[in-house]
Each structure stands twice: as C-alpha cells, then as structure tokens.
Amino acid sequence: MSDAQKAIEYAHQNRERFSRELTEFIRIESVSTDDEYKPQVLKAAEWAADHLRKIGIENVALMPTGGHPVVYGDWLKRPGAPTVLIYGHYDVQPVDPIELWETSPFEATVKGDYLFGRGTSDMKGQVMATLNAVESIMKTGDFPVNLKFMLEGEEEIGSMNMGNFLPKHKDLFKADFCLNPDAGAISADEPTITFGLRGLAYFEVHVYGPTRDLHSGLFGGTVHNPAQALAELIAGMHDSNGTITLPGFYDSVRPVTDQEREATAKLPTTPESYLKQTEVPALWGEKEYTPALRTGARPTLEVNGLLSGWTGPGSKTVLPAKAMAKISCRLVPDQDPIEVHKQLVRYMEEHAPKTVTWEVKNLHDSPWAITDVNTNGVRAMAAAMETIWGKPPLYRREGGSIGVVAMLQNICGVESGLVGGGLPDDNVHSPNERMHLPTWHKNMDAFIHFFFNMK
Description:
The protein is α+β, with helices and mostly antiparallel strands. The chain has two domains: about 280 residues, 3-Layer(aba) Sandwich (Aminopeptidase), CATH 3.40.630; about 120 residues, Alpha-Beta Plaits (2-Layer Sandwich), CATH 3.30.70. About 35% of the residues lie in helices and about 20% in strands. It contains 14 helices and 18 strands. The strands form five sheets. It has a six-stranded mixed sheet, sandwiched between helices. Strand 4 and strand 5 form a beta hairpin. Helix 5 runs parallel beside helix 13 and helix 12 packs across helix 14. The protein is globular and about 85 Å long. The chain starts with a helix and ends with a helix.
C-alpha cells in the first residue's frame, strides 16, 4: 500500500470524528462584520490554533493584524522539499435574514448528503478538509513537503488589514505554492481549478437635494427629487447592451483570448444552467460574450443597495432630502481600482444634474489575480483530482474576489491554486448555507494526493 493510500484509509476511518470536529468549529459564531461577535471570532481563531497543534503543526501563534488575528503555524522538517502555504479563513457571514433559515445556522445539521450551517461551505468546511488531509498524512507516515499556514479572520470583510500585515511578514509567508480551498467546483461531478479571480471596487454614491425631507404635494414638480436623480444616474451607467458607460472604463481591460473562449466553452455553465440556478425569466448582459465569460472574464458594475425617503409601513408623502446607492465593480486584468474610482467620479461630473449635489465615497477595493496553470502546484492538484474523480479538472476564471490571492502574488511572490468543495447551490452568504458531504470527502482524498504529488 502506498503512503497516499495509507493516509486515505486513515481519512476514511476517521470520517465520523472529522464531522464532529467540523460541527464544533461551526458552532462558534465567528461573524467578522459585527463587533458584537468579536469574542467569538477570537474563539474561532483559538480553536483553529489548538487544532493545528493537535495534528502536529509547530510554531502555532495568533498574529495581531490590527483587527482579527491571523493564525500561523508551520512544519518545516523536509530540507530541499517544496513548501506549501495553506490559506483559509475562519470568519463567516452574518446569518440575516434569520427567519429564512430552516435549521439553526450555528448548529451543524445533516440532512441527506448535506451539512447545513453558516460556514459549512464558506469556508470552515474547506479549512477542515485541508487540515484533515494533513492529519491523515501526519499520522500514517512522513509528510512529503514543508508546510505553512495562514488562517485569517477578515476575509468576509475584505481582508481589510492584510494589506498592511503581509508586507511586514512577507518572508514568513513565502512558499513555493499556496493551496487555497476557498473556491469551489462547478458541480459535484466536475473537479475544478480556478486560475483567475476578479478584483473589486466598492463605492457609495450619495445625492443630496433639499436640507430636509419636504412635503411632496407642496414641492413635488419644483424641487428635483434626489431619489429620481440617482435612479436616472444609475440607469445611465449601462447602455441597452449591458455595456458600462463610465468614461474610459474598458481602456485597460485585457481582451479575452481565443484560448480562454475555448476553455470556457468546455464548462457546463450554459445559459440554461444560469436560468435554473437563478430562476430569473431571462438572462441579461453583453451579447457578444457567453454568460460564463461575463461572470469570469468581463468587468461589471452592480447596484448592491438603494436607500432613500420613507421605506417603513404605510404611506408618508415626502420628497426625500437625499438618496444613496451602494455600487460595486468587479474588475479584470488590467484594471486599477483607483482608476475606476476616478471614472465613476468623472461620470458623475458629466451627468449629474445641477439641481442636486453629490459625492462618491470609495469604501473598499481588492485586486484581481491570475495564476499560471503550468506551475508545479497546479499540475500537482490537477493530477490529484484526476486520480480521485477519474477525469481531468476543468479550468475557469471566477467572478468573485479573494483579496489575499493577489496580495500573496504581489507581495510574497506566491502563486495560488484555488480549489475546494463548494458548489454553486450551497447558498453561500445566504440562509440555509450547506455543504455536500460526498464532495467534502473526495476533496480530502484529493488533497492527500496533492501533497504527495508536490514532493
């Protein structure tokens, strides 16, 4: 029996315990967006650190960041062997709206092949799959490569302190490859490697009219309603094809190559699959690109929230004093979030009516990232997936953003392999988040093969 097979046998024998430990982890309400949960976020960091020590990882420490700590650990006993950095995050999204949950969000509940609970898929389940693979090798033989760990507590709030933290510790986190299971698969039957992530630029656009809410019967038709002005401005940010109209928005966008079009065409993400997942009556967007390219390789501008006037029950006939929209742009190579901010301001300067005043607040940004699929780490993972699934993985560019991937690439020079057991219907960031247990177990087995393939 090979060393990998011994480790896989250990993993299979300990599946029940692995599930119990994941349940313990999920019970910790580590919501990073709310200061009320700060003690729970710290508790999750301490739980993760204790678990690393338990499976044999050394030099485990909680490193301060200015916010929630980074959990570090290492195992560096193979001179000359590659070093793999394992990334994960222990923070989770809020559970609101709580009334839509069918199970208690922090009580991991098994229903059929799924484990329900906040953080099951994003990403406590993925963290534990990786740690379980490490333990399985540790307990059955010699680990084939060196290891470092970076488990952060602020991914769900944009890794807001990592930009200052990483440059101070860039040598500590240098590695030959980063295994990042904070992605997912296209389906349970299609192993997937994500090699590209879009960046993010997040704004608030505020439009101001009168100094106070006015009576709409006395002033309507004479004073320009800020809500109407904002709605018209937002509507003008796309043309009839769904193309973004901010001046210069596409100037630096790297064109989609024929090779990318061919690779994307192999994905099972058809227009019909998008309709099924979203249950919308029809799709929308740039007609010259497929839906898969629109969500992975093209930039976007989306309205994430609107606020103005009276929104409570019943009627109140006011002309609101102000209106606000939260707007996010997903960015692709080679867009710069700072430039996109300037483009949004320029759009407002050119189109906002003189009847209102306005401001654009730049709240947050995150860079895009592209990984070379020919690196040893990506090839090692691809071979591992093919061993377990019996087919080569699919490759895709993902529409979401994981800020630390670009930071590791730009600051530490470390390429990341984005994988994981998350599936499109896992309800990530929504009520009734869940994880597909058979895929979770398959990923553990694949991670075991990955580590042996890296040696």
